[in-house]
Amino acid sequence: MRQIVPINPQAAVGLAKMVTSRASGPPKANIDNIVNIFLEFNKLQECTAFLLEALKDNRPDEGHLQTKVLEINLMSAPNVADGIFKLNIFSHYDREKIARMCEQVGLYGRALTNYTNIQDIKRVMLNTHAISEDQIMEFFAKLGEEECLQVMYDMLKSNRQNV
Predict the structure, then answer these.
(1) DSSP string, 96-128
(2) Residues 89-102: pLDDT tens digits?
(3) Residues 144, 71 share a domain
(4) What's the predicted TM-score (pTM) here?
């Protein structure tokens, strides 16, 4: 892999998918090691393509890798990370860590869906100008009555345009 990645990254992705496939039994290579090789050569797109395929089964034991692919893209290409969120294929990643990163890069709607602490939620909700109406409505539908009222109160208190 170390020899192929710098010369032909696309071929390396194919090879990585082949040696980590579970189709014919246990993988022949460790996914973490493959990811480290792609990152060693700063091949972020190829690493993402590989991980999206390798993690398609959404396994709980691969939550750290789900976190990794989201981290990589939030740091380098937030729009790609947003696209990964839209696929809705991961559910075992570190939600708090990813929520903080989403907030830092301005993906407030994604941060909102990942935070669980009401104080974090209230802080993010102050950025309603950057959150789609659909995301806000979807978020409020998931909140309990008490939390909903708390968040709405803070929204109105901070910006009258939120009415």
Answers:
(1) HHHHHHHHHTT-HHHHHHH--SHHHHHHHHTTG
(2) 999 999 999 999 99
(3) no
(4) 0.87
